[in-house]
Amino acid sequence: MKQQNKGKNTNTKNGDGIIVLKNVIKKFSAKIVLENISLAIEKGKTTVVIGPSGCGKTVLIKHLILLLRPTSGEVYFKGQRIDNLNEGQLNQIRTHYGFLFQGGALFDSLSVTENITFPIRQHCEIPDWNQVGELVKSKLAMVGLDGFQNYYPANLSGGQRKRVALARAIALNPEVILYDEPTTGLDPIRSDVINELILKLQRELNVTSVVVTHDMTSAYKVADRIIMLHKGKIIADGDADFIRNHPHPIVQHFIKGQVSDDDLAVLRMSGTMSQAQFLPRDFEQDL
Ligand SMILES: Nc1ncnc2c1ncn2[C@@H]1O[C@H](COP(=O)(O)OP(=O)(O)O)[C@@H](O)[C@H]1O
Ligand SMILES: [Mg+2]
After folding, report:
1. What are phi and psi of 236, to 5 degrees?
2. What ligand 1 atom has the least distance to the C-alpha of 229?
3. pLDDT tens digits for range 243-260
4. Is 0.70 surpassed by the pTM of this model?
């Protein structure tokens, strides 16, 4: 179908990319979560992945860094095939990535400095500890938290903890930063601080960013390109205007936060929903 809407379709399926997925299928037992995804992540750009809960966003982003291996298909980093590497080789590749994952908690028993230097201690043989203090200072300054070196996570707010985790993610000067739901659980102001940081890191460090979110305010703010996943497939791929004006009803329902006709039919069939049908764990992610 020819797209008539405004905005740019940035689909680069077969183009070059710093990370490329080719025909990636991911199954868990018989359940297909990713159905033949081909995607090139463009260097230096911010690609945002949107879609409803459970549609496979986290599974997709984990394939970019091989925290999950595809059932079939291929993954490339800078032209090198990486899905067939062993864990040792992958750890080397992963030093080029920083990631801020859902629940990617700080170590509670470690200070801010110790948390940030954790990847350095893991990956560098003999770090020069004189330089490490300077490095921690510069990474904390980048996220607006210089001076918090000796704090412990328990003494930080949710937003500050995310920013320390981000300082840790950039400790090894990554070329790619992966963010999984970075604003979930934060109020709008703290969310916007994270959005500004994503933009700042891309600008100042010239990194490639991939952001998974269901927060459209955040998506529109940070994205050069937005990809929508639905039932294991990419159903929309373009810049913010392209997505805003996308004719697909599922895209429109999602971006406007509306319940789809299919979901409404299910709700009507099951009658009025009582509060008791929600379990505390339904909200756990947002705490
Ligand atoms: N390790 C796993 N084993 C089995 N199923 C999984 C696993 N990880 C994810 N899934 C399933 O894959 C689907 C997509 O999950 P996920 O990528 O976490 O969704 P989301 O879009 O909310 O991030 C869900 O149905 C989830 O239950
Ligand atoms: Mg997820």
Report:
1. -155, 145
2. 21
3. 999 999 999 999 998 766
4. yes
What residues does 171 pair with on adjacent strands? Answer: none
Which residues make up the CATH 3.40.50.300 domain(s) of the chain?
1-96+175-287
| Protein residue with least CA distance to atom 9, ligand 1 | 59
Phi-psi sector, 273: left (phi>0), alpha (psi -120 to 50), beta? beta
| CB of 232 shorter than 6 A to ligand 1 | no
CB 62 within 8 Å of CB 212: no
Tokens 């000067």: give the residue: 173
Please state the atom number of ligand 1 nearest to the C-alpha of residue 57.
21
Is the distance from CB of 258 to CB of 241 less than 8 angstroms?
no
- Fold held by 1-96+175-287: Rossmann fold (3.40.50)
Q: What is the pLDDT of residues 103-133, one digit of tens each?
A: 667 999 999 999 999 888 777 666 677 788 9
Q: Tell me which residue of 195, 115, 119, 198 sits closest to 161, measured CA to CA.
A: 115
